[in-house]
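Deliverable D2.4 — example input (structure tokens):
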């Protein structure tokens, strides 16, 4: 019975460790497909190496004695992950920003090893468990192996659903990893209660359960941080320097939302262009606005202050982000908030809008489903005549391959496209069915002179001349993450400019 319980528990811990590792990685490197591919690859590599080693160890006569220290070692390594992983990943992220390729590679190998090492140990237990079960059974090896693998797979299901749907959302990543480490240690104790290591496992498991109630270490240290939390989708952090609050999500490359403590409106940067958006409509008097990616509500709060009669709907996938927006960023109470995926909402919604802002991009990666021809066609059907769509897209300096691909796709649907470089890492695309000559303009907005002056000072959007030979992005093929990876690789391998003599 104990060996079967060990197989079930090991399967559960493998998946819990993988999901927990993804949450540890997200605040530094995000949750893009390449990140998931590398993470899953590390897990599979760890299991493969462990299973090969376990196969060799199964030839020994003391396999039962080997199981207990292996399980305890895996529990200890998983217990350490929340303490060591953030330090390693913060260092690798700093090296990435500095463009230190060799050191970054070494650090990346360290991160991969850190995540894979407990999986190597867990992988080694499978052959040992099979050897012990077949040695004490008269059943065919295939029958014993099938039952063992079925139990391990059922454990993986329990670990996936338990960690992903229950423990990580309710306890957080660190406590969840500690909980599964404690369970693994207790199973090790159950396998060897008559031995010193068995008693050690039981004590370690109980201690681990007590540790679950302690405060976990900070996931990501940032100056002036006043709040951090984890949700099912994001790592969320708020900073406050006394004058301004900032919202960061996941890897935190970019500020998602701002709030000035003195109450002034953020009419610079990308939020200034969101406030300017009604000037790009043909009427200048938009009645309804749709914000895909509400975030901390900066754009919603600014639009509400400037256009009190505007009906605003904000779509945000993460309810925890909306809670933070309400608590720290003064999200207006009359904003209609919808907790949903932006693409799914646009597909189901039959309302029509004068203004749509698509700001759901997780820099540096652009969700492919929000930049395809199919998405733009659906979006076009939700736009009133004379309406405007704004797309916020991340880039790296003069490198515009992602921007150009998205622009090429938008021009398959919209007749006119303009762009403005907000800063070195952001380009704003302005898509309309009407020409620039039919824009209402800033004067038609009827804004107070100080606000109008700040919007006048913003660099103007200019017609975007796209390369028509580019293939538009589609739901079937939208390699935006691959394009972004090329940009990041080029950035890392770009030679540093030499100093003037």
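Example output (designed residues):
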């Amino acid at each position: 019975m104990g060996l079967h319980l060990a197989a079930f528990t090991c399967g559960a811990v493998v998946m819990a460790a993988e999901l927990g590792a993804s949450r540890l990685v997200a605040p530094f490197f995000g949750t893009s497909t390449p990140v998931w591919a590398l993470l899953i690859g590390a897990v599979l590599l760890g299991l493969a190496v462990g299973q090969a080693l376990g196969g060799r160890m199964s030839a020994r006569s003391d396999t039962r004695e080997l199981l207990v220290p292996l399980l305890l070692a895996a529990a200890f390594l998983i217990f350490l992950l929340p303490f060591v992983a953030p330090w390693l990943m913060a260092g690798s992220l700093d090296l990435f920003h500095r463009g230190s390729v060799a050191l970054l590679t070494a650090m990346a190998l360290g991160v991969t090893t850190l995540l894979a090492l407990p999986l190597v140990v867990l992988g080694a237990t499978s052959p040992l468990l099979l050897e012990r079960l077949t040695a004490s059974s008269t059943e065919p090896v295939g029958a014993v192996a099938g039952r063992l693998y079925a139990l391990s797979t059922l454990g993986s299901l329990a670990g996936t659903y338990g960690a992903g749907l229950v423990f990580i959302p309710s306890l957080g990543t660190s406590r969840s990893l500690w909980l599964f480490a404690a369970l693994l240690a207790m199973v090790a104790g159950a396998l060897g209660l008559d031995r010193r290591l068995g008693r050690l496992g039981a004590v370690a498991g109980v201690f681990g359960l007590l540790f679950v109630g302690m405060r976990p270490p900070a996931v990501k240290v940032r100056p002036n941080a006043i709040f951090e939390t984890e949700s099912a989708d994001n790592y969320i952090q708020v900073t406050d320097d006394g004058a301004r609050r900032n919202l960061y999500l996941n890897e935190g490359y970019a500020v998602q939302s701002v709030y000035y403590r003195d109450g002034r409106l953020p009419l610079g940067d990308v939020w200034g262009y969101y406030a300017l958006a009604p000037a790009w409509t043909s009427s200048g008097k938009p009645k309804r606005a749709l914000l895909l990616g509400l975030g901390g509500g900066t754009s919603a709060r600014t639009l509400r202050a400037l256009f009190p009669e505007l009906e605003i709907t904000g779509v945000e996938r993460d309810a925890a982000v909306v809670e933070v927006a309400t608590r720290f960023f003064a999200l207006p109470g009359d904003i209609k908030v919808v907790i949903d995926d932006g693409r799914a909402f646009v597909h189901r919604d039959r309302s029509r809008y004068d203004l749509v802002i698509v700001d759901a991009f997780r820099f540096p990666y652009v969700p492919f489903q929000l930049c395809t021809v199919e998405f733009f066609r659906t979006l076009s059907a939700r736009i009133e005549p004379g309406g405007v769509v704004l797309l916020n897209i991340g880039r790296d300096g003069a490198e515009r391959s992602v921007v150009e691909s998205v622009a090429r796709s938008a021009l398959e649907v919209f007749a006119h496209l303009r762009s403005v470089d907000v800063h070195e890492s952001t380009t704003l695309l302005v898509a309309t069915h009407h020409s620039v000559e039919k824009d209402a303009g800033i004067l038609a907005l009827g804004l107070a002179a100080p606000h109008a002056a700040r919007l006048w000072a913003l660099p103007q959007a200019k017609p975007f001349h796209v390369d028509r030979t580019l293939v538009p992005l589609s739901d079937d093929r939208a390699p935006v993450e691959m394009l972004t990876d090329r940009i990041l690789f080029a950035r890392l391998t770009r030679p540093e400019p030499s100093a003037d003599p």
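The longest helix spans residues 63-98.
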